[in-house]
Amino acid sequence: MGFFDDLKQKIVASSAGEYDVPMVSSKLDEIVKSSSSGVVMMTFQSCPYCVKAREVLDSNSIPYTDIVLEDLDSGALKGPLRAELGKRFKQTSVPAIFLKEEFIGGANNGGKGGLIPLLASGEFQKML
């Protein structure tokens, strides 16, 4: 991980403020486990990459669960979940896409390569 990735994680963690780490970590576990039978993604409502991921999944007729972070606990978990996401998966940005309890990445990169590149290569379809 590079200097800027480390810096971004520190900024996200700092902006999350103090929070109940075990509770938020457990919530992240719950989200990851909910992907055991399909696609689950953590998003922001109007994030352009999140919108693109939704469009790509919809256009490929791939069902998914969209967990909009602003809607969880009136948005109170948005920062803490991103901080925990960074600790665990080294990515704080959204969308954060999971399939069968594996971190796929975002729309374009991260994790196993990102939704769009994995779809283009046919790898995502094999994972389904």
From TrEMBL:
Give the molecular function GO annotations: protein-disulfide reductase activity
* Positions of transmembrane segments: none
Instruction: Cite the entry's keywords alphabetically.
Output: Disulfide bond, Electron transport, Redox-active center, Transport
Q: Which PROSITE patterns match?
A: GLUTAREDOXIN_2 (PS51354)
- Tell me one Pfam family matched here: Glutaredoxin
Q: Which family does it belong to?
A: Belongs to the glutaredoxin family.
The entry's protein name is Glutaredoxin domain-containing protein
